[in-house]
Amino acid sequence: MGAFPVYRWRHAPDGLATRRQLRALGLRPGGQDVAAQVERPRRRRGPLVAYLYSIEQAKPVRPMTPAKWAALAKANAARRLCPKCGRDAGYVIPPSLGMCTPCAFPDEQRAA
Fold first, then answer.
1. How many helices (H) and strands (E) does the chain have?
2. What is the signed CA dihedral for 93, 96, 97, 99, rounded to 10 degrees?
């Protein structure tokens, strides 16, 4: 057991929230330490663990700036660009293939 309280699943007190719950409220932990931990038991493996943060100490989410929006658009565009043929695939290229579908499976495209 750690230095903070551990609660069973669905038994955490009010005023504490996970990162996702904070985000849904438009908040972020804001550098605060973990206030508690929730454990959800599983049958054959160790329990699932979620860290809880105080809602009162949470800070508002920082707004996206125009530069951040531009960087995000550029990164998403790079995920769609095929490194082999250089074309925009029209979808995010799967990392398992590393290239667009026509480049990965050229024989199947000719048969169709």
1. 4, 6
2. 40
Helices (H), 1-112: 19-24, 66-80, 101-104, 106-111
Global pTM value: 0.67
**Residue scoring higher pLDDT (65 or 110):** 65
Helices (H), 16-105: 19-24, 66-80, 101-104
Q: Taken in order 81, 84, 85, 90, is the CA torsion positive or negative?
A: negative
Extract the tokens encoding 38.
Answer: 């929730």
77-109 per-position pLDDT tens digit: 999 999 999 999 999 999 999 999 889 888 765
Vertex 111, ends 107 and 112: CA angle to 5°? 120
In degrees, to the nearest 5, what angle opens at C-alpha 100 toward C-alphas 69 and 79? Answer: 15
